[in-house]
Amino acid sequence: MTHYFATVARGLETVAAQELITLGAQQVKPDFCGVYFEGDQRLLYQVNLWSRTIFRVLVPLRTFACCDAQQLYREVQRLDWREYVTPAQTLAVVCTGSNSQLNHTHFTALQVKNAIVDQQRHYSGERSSVNAEEPDILLNLHLEGDTAVLSLDSSGGSLHRRGYRPEVGLAPLKETLAAALLLMAGWQAQTPLLDPLCGSGTLPLEAGLQALDIAPGLFRRDFGFQHWLDFDSTLWEELFQEAHERELTTLAAPIWGSDQDADLIEQACHNAQRAGLSQQITFSTIDLHDLEAPTDQGVLICNPPYGQRLGSTAELGDFYRSLGDILKQRFKGWTAFVLTGNKDLAKQIGLRTAKRFAVYNGTIPCTLLKYELY
Fold it and tell me: What distance in Å separates the CA atoms of residue 298 and residue 331, rounded to the nearest whole number?
């Protein structure tokens, strides 16, 4: 069994841990902005292919004391890098955290890179080139005080970039957060779902992928582990094919997305087409004030602006009051979930919450509010 660390958005550690358990991970332990777990190579590939809520899967190589640049260089060279990268492969190093002597991430990353390429030159006379954008081998160094953890990044790029969504609005939800909100809401594929403020469609699209059991990793062109020296192409092809065979073709219940902005709805339709969901999800241009419940019961979930990146708090008060009135008057029998980062605006909805979930949208502390509508 190999030790792994999945990086996640703040507040989603427990949700991601449960997802990892479902995927077969062992010794799952949530931590700040991440989850420790154990598994074999098959699990590593499966998590990258299937996880909807995590950013990256790191494989720790060494944990060591690290007080300054000289010690960092020496400790990195203690690894035999011939096991992980060839001079013909490109590499990049990402650093997080700092201490009193290593407080500039670019400088810290440079020390790691120098230690590796100097060792390569010693053994072969050749060295890897740096490719910051699309490296073959991506390394992560995390500093916490005078302790460093050096890891291989098996994902290569953040898993929230599914690949189906090049077109986004001004303040889009990350796909991983949208997927997590649906899990936190307890939404099931047999229940109709509506996002009346869908923007470029992230919540309905993630719901569609979940409902049709489509692995989010199928849209990605490349994963970091595919460039590793121990990459098992046969195993990967088997898992990739299994994922395709699991896909369903028809939704058990309808999924709708609407927005008053016709340009955003056009973006959502384009994204749905790229995700293979254009025949499954209905997107419409509808002003919130014209919204009506499409069925007698279902789940409504939305991410209205809360004055951080879109709109001002003063202007949004009336909008939130209108949202509350529409939910109360037109959506009896439904359950509603509203994500907000503004407590004052949330009060304007004027409904009693059944439950509250703390979550972060990027760096913004938010709350997912649940309303039972009778």
Answer: 9
State the SS3 of the chain. CEEEEEECCCCCHHHHHHHHHHHCCEEEEEECCEEEEEECHHHHHHHHHHCCCCCEEEEEEEEEECCCHHHHHHHHHCCCHHHCCCCCCCEEEEEEEECCCCCCHHHHHHHHHHHHHHHHHHHHCCCCCECCCCCCEEEEEEEECCEEEEEEECCCCCCCCCCCCCCCCCCCCCHHHHHHHHHHHCCCCCCCEEECCCCCCHHHHHHHHHHCCCCHHHHCCCCHHHHCCCCCHHHHHHHHHHHHHHCCCCCCCCEEEEECCHHHHHHHHHHHHHCCCCCCEEEEECCHHHCCCCCCCCEEEECCCCCCCCCCHHHHHHHHHHHHHHHHHHCCCCEEEEEECCHHHHHCCCCCCCEEEEEEECCEEEEEEEEECC
CA dihedral 8, 13, 15, 17 (to 10 degrees): 90
Task: Please write the tens of the pLDDT for every residue from 17-58.
Answer: 999 999 999 999 999 999 999 999 999 999 999 999 999 999
pLDDT, tens digit (0-9, with 9 covering 90-100), for 277-333: 999 999 999 999 999 999 999 999 999 988 654 445 667 899 999 999 999 999 999
pTM as predicted: 0.93
